[in-house]
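Schema walkthrough. Field components (list of strings):
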Amino acid sequence: MAEKKRVKLAETMEARLEQLAEQRHKIELGGGEKRLAKQHDKGKQTARERIDNLVDKYSFDEVGAFREHRTTLFGMDTAEIPADGVVTGRATIAGRPVHVASQDFSVMGGSAGETQSTKVVETMEQALLTGTPFLFFYDSGGARIQEGIDSLSGYGKMFYANVKLSGVVPQIAIIAGPCAGGASYSPALTDFIIMTKKAQMFITGPSVIKSVTGEDVTGEQLGGAEAHMSTSGNIHFVAEDDDAAVLIAKKLLSFLPQNNTEDAAIANPNNDIAPVPELRDIVPIDGKRGYDIRDVIAKVVDWGDYLEVKAGWATNIVTAFARINGRSVGIVANQPKVMSGCLDIDASDKAAEFIGFCDSFNIPLVQLVDVPGFLPGVQQEYGGIIRHGAKMLYAYSEATVPKITVVIRKAYGGSYLAMCNRDLGADAVFAWPTAEIAVMGAEGAANVIFRREIKASEDPAATRAEKIEEYQTAFNTPYVAAARGQVDDVIDPADTRRKITAALETYATKRQSRPAKKHGNMPC
Ligand code: HXC
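Field assembly_structure (string):
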């Protein structure tokens, strides 16, 4: 069996330092200048450049640069695979410790063998041990084919570690190159996926699909960033390129605590709680007219600055991180501009995932409610809107972080409960004078309960209008809910920011526990 070449150690310290520098240089060259240049030609950065851009200058301490593989078959006994195709280590981002890994596509296509997976898993274990976020750049041809079952086992260990870290330290995946087959389940098990427009991710590629189902599709159509954002909902952010991905990762991280035992840092507070009169003019009183809920969000949060999550998918609901008086919050808001803000299958999944994350990491939740109901339709029912909608009910009921709900306009039936009303544990509930909190809309209600009177009437249209008005007056106002204690206060929209700020201060010390259990069973 051939042996890997070993360097004979030099006699003097000076010469040994030269040897060390040479070896390090060789490792840092990865798959060599040509392959690194090829990476640049594709508009992508190298594994090391990505880490350099992500972390604070001079903060990166590489761990395991000299690690080697142990494969012998297919001529691998003499193969040198620098760092085994992944750069791993610890660093800081904006002064906060993190652990990072970055697959090196120039080294055997970034493929993951036993040693690569071991390095990644060890890095994740260090993140767990130290309570620090873990960030991973994926850019790989998947399991290293020459290593057979060992590479498969390596992925299994990565998945297991992803799940172990889940809910303990934030995990951020940056898909920066190919990520195919079972390998894509590692990012899928993290908290957030940022995907660049240079990357593709799928379980089975276009050629396999063609041979199995006969469907024609390009790699980009199937697994490009836009497809994952707008159609599959698999990813959370689209980035133009590596630089943009890093900026998103840094911004995202700025809203998150280091781990589940900490609160996110209070940062860059805007303590101006003066009334915001513009909030009175954004929302039309006529419930049939749409508006962009993001205009409301921008007026409520600090500096009008927020980071929308899954901005291109299930756009009938908006999920976003922001700060209010410097405190990190998760915002869940119906979007009346899209499908009148109805909750459907995808919106329920999107919101439930976000709520679960915020609760895991002690980030208070703020709901902006304008929801006419769950989306009616055969496809929705067959698609399982019952179990998908249940995820929101489950996630809010399970969440023990401060929950502040503001009812802006419609808040009907089960969809209102799914947006966290008092019964689902909202700590503070405010309603605007435009709020309509009821079991259903007045038109639908009148058609059901006054059906006979309307039918028997000489002028059914006039009677229907009269009955709608009657129901509207009786129920579709904020005051009935306020009378029942479902709403703490009916407020001038201009005071929304002040009210939320004060509630967040009050409930910052909220401590709530649940009955001991191994874990609950979220509907899925
Ligand atoms: C070993 C690999 C490799 C792999 C690529 N390479 N993938 N080596 N194992 N999985 C090597 C290539 O031989 C090549 O080596 C170098 O990486 C660059 O690859 P290219 O093909 O030249 O690059 P490109 O044209 O950009 O294509 C990238 C690619 C393609 C689309 C990712 O390489 C590809 O299809 N690779 C195979 C994907 C695959 O089938 N993986 C196994 C999946 S099974 P040289 O020396 O020429 O530079 C799997 C199971 C995981 O992942 C299960 C987990 C549960």
